[in-house]
What does this fold into?
Amino acid sequence: MSIPVSNYQLVQLTNGSWSVRSLAEGETFHPVVGPVAEAQALYVEQLQLPARVAAAAENGSQEFVIWDVGLGAAANTLTVLRALHGIDRHRVRIVSFDHTATPLEFALGNAERLGYFGGYEAPVRSLLDSGRVEFAHGSGVVTWEFVGGDFPTLLESEASKALPAPDAILFDAYSPARNPVMWTLPVFRALRNRVDPSRPCALATYSRATLLRVTLLLAGWWVGAGSATGEKEETTLAASDRSLVGRPLDQTWIGRALRSRSAEPMVEPVYRQLPLSDETRARLLAHPQFG
Ligand SMILES: C[S@@+](CC[C@H](N)C(=O)[O-])C[C@H]1O[C@@H](n2cnc3c(N)ncnc32)[C@H](O)[C@@H]1O
It folds into this structure.
């Protein structure tokens, strides 16, 4: 069953939960297990957010910064916030990126059916109205800002240098085939360059494509197999620090990558599938993860 409205549509999934679908892109935001279950498995748990945010709060260190790449209908961020609510005196800053706030407007208008907005309608409304909101959250404080515009262009801009470095990244663009501009080597290199060397950062994303994993490795991340989400039996977890990657890709994976017909990173934002070039192969084998 589906209810069409403008460029976005509510879609009921087979497990009964509701999600948002972009008609223009032809993609459903969290297509199988639904928004909350996917966000919980993919981001809350595998990025170890409750433990890392609690540790930051205990140390009295600076805010824990989460980059939410592809705010969309905010299911990921709101699921993360709900998971952090009970942590004593947490201080979390969320920086959400998207080139449109329309899916969030649409989702807020359908909050009841989507089910994951409960209690967060007011901060979401403020975010939409002002681009920034700060609010008490249990015994903690959350600052949430929206950064509009094309994400790859923004990453290359001087203005982006003023953004706080991320401790965790929720990377949720549309698929590489539909949305290649978000999955290039320059994007993941620029993201890696934004990490503060004194603050280990982990990035999770739903794709397990060899092409993506090679891209992350070449961009300077440690890369591992990510946990299952119900939709995918495996996802991808990358980090600036090896200790944050539980199941690093190994020689068996390298063997598969060397044989793959779709492993060469995209440098330009045009989707195509190619086996590894000689140069990429050499750089991959020289990555410290495989040394
Ligand atoms: C799969 S949806 C995100 C779903 C969202 N994380 C959620 O929890 O509801 C992908 C999002 O990426 C955004 N996006 C795609 N290309 C972009 C670009 N070049 N710059 C910024 N945002 C982009 C889309 O507008 C869309 O909202």
Confidence is low (pLDDT under 50) at residues 1-5. Residues 35-45 form the longest helix (11 residues).
